[in-house]
From TrEMBL:
SUPFAM superfamilies: HD-domain/PDEase-like. CDD domains: HDc. This is HD/PDEase domain-containing protein. Residues 49-167 form the HD/PDEase domain. It comes from the Bacteria. InterPro entries: HD/PDEase_dom, HD_domain.
Amino acid sequence: MEICYTLNVLLNEYPRGLLAKKFSEYTTKDARLARVAESTREAFNKSGLTAHNWEHSYRDALNAIVIGEAEGADMNIVLPAALMHDIGFLYGGTGKTHGAVGADKLPEFLAQYDIKYPEKDLLHIAACIRTHKGSMQNESPETLEAKVVCDADFLEKFGIFGVYSGIRTHTEFNNDIECIIDRKTKGMEKLYLETKTGKEIAEQGRQFVVDFFQALDKANEPYRT
């Protein structure tokens, strides 16, 4: 199987550490965003979640920088939404419901850390969180910022990271190998990227995920009854 990386030239242009530096520049300029990052890190580190954790949220934020800047999105909305897109899991949300739960619980989460946003921005961030599963949940992100947040999250479902995060996610949900194989071989065709940049970065990694889990399916055949 030929290795096809999730990240194409658009992301390969960023040498090691550059995206982290860009994120640091955003948080240095915006003290409120820095508090969002620190609060989200603290909350997820306490949660013990395997896949939907700070590591994942941070990668999504870096993905969002690449996509959001290229698309001309409002990063004052995109970055806090990307960082907090999975907070629904902290309030009992499931794979299907955590977007809605996170959007509804956003004011409570921010209040817990004494973080305040103007009402208009709060509603916009909540909308990004609510629809971040996009085509996976038959949702349609409406604003450019919501589309960027959706695509930033979807990048982890393509290519090598698609395999890595897929296994971690299904382990977190306690799904067996048959469920993982079924969802990852059949589900990839349903994933729709919302932005031109997102499509350019992720699309080449779609078949890699399908090929890997088809190979896993074949390897698992002798163990079936």
